[in-house]
Amino acid sequence: MSDVPDFEVARDHVRDELVRFTRALRRAGVGVPANAQTTAARALVEVGFDDESRANVALRACLVTEREDLDTFDRLFGEFWRRLTAGVTPEGSAERREDDPDGGFAPLGGAPADERVEESSGRETDGDSDDQRGAAASSSLGGVVSKNAGEHVGEHVATKRSPTGTPTPVAAATTTPDQEFERAFADLTDALAGLRGRRWTAGGDERADARRALRSSFGTGGIVVSMPQRERTRPAVRALLLVDVSQSVLDTVDRSFLLGFLRRARADWRDASVYFFDEELRDVSNAFDAPSQTAALDALERAEAEWGGGTRIGASLAQLPPDAVDHRTDVFVVSDGLETGDVAELERALSGIAQRAASVRWLNPLAASPAYEPAARGMAAAQPFVDGIFAFSEAADLTELARQLRTRGPRERVGYEYDSRRE
Amino acid sequence: MTDRRTTAFADATESDVRAAFDAEDYVADDDVVTTVLLALRLGKPLLVEGEPGAGKTELAKVLAAGFDTDLVRLQCYEGLTAESALYEWNYTKQLLAVQRGNRHSSGGGSDGGGSGSDGNGDGSDGSDAGAEDGERGESVFTEEYLLERPLLRALRNDGETPPVLLIDEVDRADEEFEALLLEVLSDFQVSVPELGTVRAETPPVVVVTSNRTRGLSDALKRRCLYLHVSPPSFEKERAILARKVPELDGAVAAELCAAAGRLREEPLRKPPGAAETIDWARAVAALRTNGDESLSSAEVEQTLGCLLKEVEDVERVDDDLLADLLDAASEARASTDAAR
């Protein structure tokens, strides 16, 4: 069995993720024995971190005691493993907030992230009459996605959908520093998770924590040196991300921004499912779990190759599994709203989702334009069922979305029309 | 407790486990190897569940043979008592010893209460009078009079390598019996009132099997690693037949595996496990004169009893289902021939 990293921070990270995983299993109804976490930790140490399937078997042996729970275990294990390996490097574990949006943390024993990115980019430009395919790949990415997709370094060329419907390359000053995206995404996460729970947690500045103060005073002879604070826990974000991958959207949206957003949501939010749709719906959540962005990019390219035509939004949304949405789910639809199918079907599907979800917000790349109005028939039909239409082209759009949610609240009117940048 | 006990297999490696399985022709998936290895290295009992015939009991046998150590088997059944599982006193021997002691006392001219000695000679009630071997004052509750049963035998094993303790079909035993097992499974010790606590020097490798005829207690499950053995896949079953029934032609083996797999899709009272497929293959191989011919309907009908063990299941195999079985077999043969 493989070596185990012997550094304190990594051990803490592994412990944290293991505890989180066990809690998730219990929440899902798995009867995890009381002492199982200890055994699981020992088992994980034995099998190491370089083989996902082996770790799966080891933890399953420790945490599951009923055959009926095996499926639930397998379903949740993917998320656990992604979080575990995303936070551990041979140098130690990293703060999640500072994770590279590209997920540049290699599983222990695997190739470093940089190498993998180079490999993947090499693979894209190799083979199959390399230049041609490389050019095609590059073309299919619309010049939007850099080799290291998700890294917004330097200028790049974006394509904007022109009024004539012909994709026209335009030079876009979209130098988007990673930090800006990080801040914007963190803002959005905070805004979505803004409603506070009933439990208290250490930290913050809401209220003095007398119990902790008393405990710590034992070490100083009863003198309270500093007053610890506590705050209400915030619920984690549960989201459903429905992404229109029709050609009209792919011509319009900044793909690296889109993929970065989806990957970050998968990584940071408690539960974020990602579905691509065009003329049908496909669950692509797993594609956003890999350490590098290659799998997500492949999924997007595959969707473009297989579909990439008109979109039937209503018919696609109607295929959504019933359990994909519940009253805690924030639904985000990334689409330009150009419905080529039956608008009545869109209304039916969306109203059903709106009734079940905590909120439905429409992220429209076209709404970045100051002159945008939801005049497309699909968008007009969807508007009554959504809690706001927002622009979706750069980090500032996320910041604006977060700002509106924070200042106006989830029950107030929000949307592109209240975007302060339009004034 | 067990966390701090030194296990004899703390340094076992994956290749050790695979070698043990290979030596006994046991075809194991990676998940079985990893889980068994963890059980060995962590010194935890292994709870194995799965359909009958999936190879649960065989797993323990193979481990014992593969690691060249003893297999101590406790077959559980309804009404199994602690005496049958742990230890008993050799009452006859105790009685004789007490009588011998009394005679010795009487012969010495003492009138020391010879009357009623028979009644006291039964050491089963543990009374002091009956427990003393006459004048010598020696207890009859000593090693000499102890009859070890499987659990105690496994714990007191003084061999170089600890034994494999197989607690088979634990779900057949009463729930009260499970409580008895808890001390064994967590601390590898038992309390014998007359002797004190008996604790294993080196914990045995414990394999507990269950067919899920009833739910097991959380306390028992908590003490074990869990392994669910799934019905074998087509490829795995072929590999098993290649090991266990080497005299059977490979294409015919593929036919049998495909037919058995097709049968498992039916709502049978007792779906065939890998063990039944092995029996079937052996029967087919024994009856064949021409080794590599395709499976015939007559052949299937003649040997179906090896595969199905319930009358209702056998009756279910009508002409249509038989044709389906042969179709599945034929497809498997075609793909096997193509792969060659």
Description of the molecule:
With about 425 residues, chain A is α/β, with parallel strands linked by helices. Chain A is built from 15 helices and 12 strands. Chain A has helices spanning about 10-25, 35-45, 50-65, 70-85, 115-125, 130-140, 180-190, 210-215, 245-250, 255-270, 295-305, 315, 345-355, 375-380, 395-410, and strands at about 90, 90-95, 155-160, 165-170, 200-210, 230, 240-245, 270-275, 280-285, 330-335, 360-365, 390. Chain A has a 6-stranded mixed sheet with strand order 9-8-7-10-11-12. In chain A, strands 1-2 form a two-stranded antiparallel ribbon. Chain A has a two-stranded antiparallel ribbon with strand order 3-4. In chain A, β3 (about 155-160) and β4 (about 165-170) form a beta hairpin. In chain A, α1 runs antiparallel to α4, α2 runs antiparallel to α3 and α7 (about 180-190) runs parallel beside α15 (about 395-410). Chain B is α/β, with parallel strands linked by helices. Chain B is about 50% helix and about 15% strand. In chain B, the strands form 4 sheets. In chain B, strands 2-7-10-1-11 form a 5-stranded parallel sheet. Chain B has a two-stranded antiparallel sheet with strand order 3-6. The model of chain B is unreliable at about 110-130 (pLDDT under 50). The chains are: A alpha/beta (about 425), B alpha/beta (about 350). The interface of A and B includes residues 36, 54, 67 and 70 of A.
Core attributes:
A: 423 residues; alpha/beta; six-stranded mixed β-sheet; 12 strands; B: 340 residues; two-stranded antiparallel ribbon; 16 helices; 11 strands; elongated
Summarize the structure.
Chain A is α/β, with parallel strands linked by helices and 423 residues long. Chain A has 15 helices and 12 strands.
What is the subunit arrangement here? heterodimer
Summarize model confidence as the mean pLDDT of chain B.
84
Coarse morphology of chain A = globular
Largest sheet, strands/sense/barrel of chain A: 6 strands, mixed
Helix and strand string of chain A, N-terminal first? HHHHEEHHEEHEHEEHHEEHHEHEHEH
What portion of residues of chain A is helical? Answer: 40-55%
| Largest interface, chains and sizes | A-B, 23 and 24 residues
Percent of residues in helices of chain B comes to 40-55%
Compute the number of strand runs of chain B.
11
How much strand of chain A? 5-15%
Strand order of the largest sheet of chain B: 2-7-10-1-11
Gyration radius of chain A (Cα, Å) is 23 Å
Largest sheet of chain B: 5 strands, parallel
For the biggest β-sheet of chain A, the strand order reads 9-8-7-10-11-12
Number of strands of chain A: 12
> What percentage of amino acids of chain B are in beta strands?
5-15%
Q: How many individual helices of chain A?
A: 15
